[in-house]
Amino acid sequence: MADVTDRALSFGSGAADYERHRPGYPEELVAAIVDYAGRPLRTALEIGAGTGKATRVFAAAGIDVLATDPDAGMLAELRRHVPADVRTLQAPFEELGGTGTYDLVFAAAAMHWTDPVGRWPLVASLLTDGGVFASFGGQVDLADPDVDEAVRKACEPFLADDEVPSPDGTPAEAAMQWPGSELLLADAFTDVRQLVIVRRTVMSTRDYLGHLSTISAYRVLPADVRAEAFARIGEVLPDEVGLTADIVLHLARRA
């Protein structure tokens, strides 16, 4: 099985597919973060910006964003979709120390790819006094349990599981999910909260398979194996699929 590093660096070659098939983020997300902050958020640093799915909604809210990502391909795609005044920096999270301090540091489905050693002290060092950290994301799941089971069985010969396990082993049924579970223990942070933004959508089978092609567990499969897996999955899907795509938002304030 490919390790976490392989999966983390698997996206850049499919940046255009990622942009096309991954869902964006609603203005409601930014509003929830601003409400939590309780003060203006003028500057932000984004960790693992990808193609700018989240970048653009924060920039649209008038926040000066520095979007960072270790992958040049993802940042090149990002530049096609964000305002010209959004700054970018090609760098992994672990090399962001010394790039300044910001009212907000945020990550969209990216923190689980970062090195756990020194993760939270580094985030804290990037924040102004009382600055806010926000991490958000969530699985895109098939809403119909029968369809979900059919897909699981079709995929089983090729891939046991396409989820990224909780970095600290927090079980799925726990009230506080990761990274909130770690932030509660981090001395540099206080007022840790978890919010859920409900999101439901419908995709064609073609677009759903396109979405699967952006998932790291599939991307690291050999091309012929991935193609066969998608063919088998496509055979058991209806023309359209309903999806549950809730956004789980974790918030914390620098102590």
Features:
255 residues, alpha/beta, Rossmann fold, seven-stranded mixed sheet, three-stranded antiparallel sheet, 24% strand, globular, disordered N terminus
Could you characterize what this model shows?
Strands 3-2-1-4-5-10-7 form a 7-stranded mixed sheet, with helices on both faces. Strands 6-9-8 form a 3-stranded antiparallel sheet. It has 11 helices and 10 strands. α4 (55-60) links the parallel β1 and β2. Helices cover 33% and strands 24% of the residues. α2 (15-21) packs across α9 and α7 (145-155) packs antiparallel against α11. With 255 residues, it is an alpha/beta fold. It has a domain at 4-137 and 165-198 and 247-254: Vaccinia Virus protein VP39 (Rossmann fold, 3-Layer(aba) Sandwich), CATH 3.40.50. The protein has helices spanning 4-8, 15-21, 27-37, 55-60, 72-79, 119-125, 145-155, 180-183, 205-212, 216-219, 223-236, and strands at 43-47, 64-69, 87-90, 102-108, 127-137, 141-142, 189-197, 200-204, 240-244, 247-254.
